[in-house]
UniProtKB/TrEMBL annotation:
Protein name as it appears in the record: Sugar ABC transporter permease
Gene3D superfamilies: MetI-like
Principal localisation: membrane
Listed InterPro entries: BP-dep_ABC_trans_perm, MetI-like, MetI-like_sf
Length: 287
């Protein structure tokens, strides 16, 4: 009993230490985003003299973080739409139907899990540049490079293996009795997938949305490579802001930009936390 209690206490201490290691820097950045320029020359742990909202106004307007924010939202939402539109039907077919080559398809999808997209970003860039050159007579300004929609397609294509793998495992854990009952009532395969299976797989879909949202929202290398123009994403824009504000020693605007990047992730996690836990913990559905 004593050993069990000691282990539980150590677990609580470890969890508390990890939580503090995450919460303290986030809280520090939030407080620093409200400080005036002169307040950074004293102790870094002093509270701001007031809520300097002008830092956020400058970050949004002057540093164009508002424009970059909209680009990131557009790219992330389009990427999620693309990946869900492909992954959900594909995962359902792989989980429920026998067809020639299914084993090969599953092996290829598993192989895709081990491909780090950051290692193939240069071939992707060269391929898109080649396509733009082939369309130079029709589209002189190019189409595939510096196009947020194309960036969304690249995000979706590179995250399809993980999404299908996770959804396939969840679909297989759902008993076929539900589908058989719906088929007896005259439901088509499409209706069975959308009206029966998809609502039951909502925890897994939520998990896919969160993991892919984090990957798309926090990406830097692919966005920097495929969007070289003014339509930058938030992560690339934050780097430009960091460089400019370090030179100007205006750190309040810099930390305001960091908060703009962090807040959407925290809001999304707070909204889908319960379903995310269900998706990670559920191992099957009892009939």
């Amino acid at each position: 009993m004593t050993i069990t209690r000691l282990g539980r206490t150590l677990t609580y201490v470890l969890v508390a230490a990890i939580a503090l290691a995450i919460a303290v820097p986030v809280a520090w950045v939030l407080l620093a985003s409200f400080k005036a320029k002169g307040e950074f020359y004293g102790s870094p742990w002093t509270l701001p003299a007031g809520l300097r909202i002008q830092n956020y106004v400058d970050a949004f307007v002057t540093a164009h973080m508002g424009q970059y924010f909209l680009t990131s939202v557009l790219v992330t939402v389009l990427g999620l739409v693309f990946v869900l539109a492909v992954s959900i039907p594909a995962a359902y077919v792989i989980a429920r139907y026998e067809f020639r080559g299914r084993g090969l398809v599953e092996v290829l999808l598993l192989a895709g899990l081990f491909v780090n997209v950051n290692y193939i970003v240069v071939p992707i860039f060269l391929m898109l540049v080649g396509w733009d050159r082939s369309l130079a007579d029709v589209l002189p300004g190019g189409f595939f490079i510096d196009n947020p929609a194309v960036l969304s397609l690249v995000y979706a294509a590179t995250s399809i293996p993980f999404s299908i793998y996770l959804l396939t495992a969840y679909f297989r854990s759902i008993p076929v009795d539900y589908e058989e009952a719906a088929s007896l009532d005259g439901a088509s395969r499409f209706l069975v997938m959308t009206r029966i299976m998809l609502p039951m797989a909502r925890p897994a879909v939520t998990t896919v949305i969160l993991f892919n949202f984090l990957a798309y929202w926090n990406d830097f290398i692919i966005a920097l490579t495929l969007l070289p123009g003014d339509g930058k994403t938030l992560q690339v824009g934050l780097l430009n802001l960091m460089t400019a504000q370090k030179a100007a020693a205006d750190y309040g605007r810099l930390y305001a930009g960091m908060v703009i990047v962090i807040v959407p992730v925290l809001i999304l996690y707070a909204l889908i936390q319960r379903r995310l836990i269900e998706g990670m913990a559920a191992g099957g559905v009892k009939g």
